[in-house]
């Protein structure tokens, strides 16, 4: 059986990673600035996007791929594949998953497997990479799904922002709404958990240095329990803070016998619409399923 993998533009995988696998495809979300519409990562880069919102203070909106967009993509893939594994941004954060399900229900000539990552950015990207690796090693969909479910519950995206305005305005703030009005002079630590698929608060600290220390403590606990770790440093326009965090992580990993794969990525403009430019943090997954 010939299988394609479809994900969306919020997976934040490097373009070269996607292009080197001819069976791996993406469908983009969209960014809307008043009368202007941009295709995520195609019409506007992360650098251009974050520069624009910092300069103008605009609060853009986003839109998911339509059912028609998915139908067009599925029909194109149907020409060359018998099965499509379709993994997408958390259904708690976007209607992308529902669009994929509705479109898949209208397809008859190809077997489409839909999977809710319950994550975003490289939290989703990690699941795509695992799917590709398992496919290339001859695993069937039931075996892949079993591994993805384990990975999903062992994946977290941890991040901070200078304020919660973008998350609040975009309606993606989830349980972190409890922090609104209480983070003056504090940095909130937020988590997108693979269990819930929504943003939840993990606490707040004073300043970037203490926030990095708190993140490092979270990572150290993982390093003590697991030998196989995938980790991605993520950021909007706060590359300096992100690189400081990366240096600290590399130092800690060097002190342990850890099989660490480390990425560094700017988040997609679509995700940036809901976090703002000040975001930085990490995506983390660990366990024997990575061995």
From TrEMBL:
GO MF terms, alphabetically ordered: lipid binding
Pfam families, sorted: DegV (PF02645)
InterPro entries: DegV, DegV_C, DegV_domain_contain
Keyword terms, alphabetized: Lipid-binding
UniProt cross-references to NCBIfam families, sorted A to Z: DegV (TIGR00762)
PANTHER family (alphabetical): DEGV DOMAIN-CONTAINING PROTEIN DR_1986-RELATED, FATTY ACID-BINDING PROTEIN TM_1468
The protein's name in its UniProt record: EDD domain protein, DegV family
Species this protein is from: Halarsenatibacter silvermanii
């Amino acid at each position: 059986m010939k299988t394609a993998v479809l994900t969306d533009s919020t997976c934040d995988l490097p373009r070269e990673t996607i292009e080197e696998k001819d069976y791996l495809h993406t469908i983009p979300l969209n960014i809307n600035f008043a009368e202007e519409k941009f295709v995520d990562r195609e019409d506007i880069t992360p650098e251009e996007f974050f520069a624009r919102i910092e300069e103008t203070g605009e609060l853009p909106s986003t839109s998911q791929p339509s059912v028609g967009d998915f139908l067009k993509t599925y029909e194109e893939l149907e020409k060359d594949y018998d099965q499509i594994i379709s993994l997408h941004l958390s259904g708690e954060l976007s209607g992308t998953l529902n669009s994929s399900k509705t479109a898949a229900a209208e397809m008859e000539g190809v077997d489409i497997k839909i999977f809710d990552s319950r994550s975003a950015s490289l939290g989703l990207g990690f699941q795509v990479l695992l799917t590709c690796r398992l496919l290339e090693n001859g695993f069937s969909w039931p075996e892949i799904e079993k591994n993805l479910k384990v990975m999903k519950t062992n994946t977290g995206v941890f991040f901070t922002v200078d304020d919660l305005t973008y998350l609040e305005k975009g309606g993606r703030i989830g349980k972190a709404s409890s922090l609104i009005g209480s983070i003056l002079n504090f940095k909130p630590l937020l988590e997108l958990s693979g269990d819930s698929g929504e943003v939840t608060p993990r606490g707040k600290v004073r300043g970037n240095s203490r926030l990095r220390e708190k993140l490092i403590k979270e990572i150290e606990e993982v390093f003590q329990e697991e030998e196989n770790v995938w980790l991605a440093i993520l950021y909007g326009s706060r590359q300096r803070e992100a690189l400081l965090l990366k240096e600290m992580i590399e130092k800690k990993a060097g002190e342990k016998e850890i099989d660490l794969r480390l990425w560094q990525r700017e988040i997609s403009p679509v995700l940036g619409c809901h976090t703002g430019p000040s975001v930085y943090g990490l995506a983390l997954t660990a366990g024997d399923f990575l061995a």
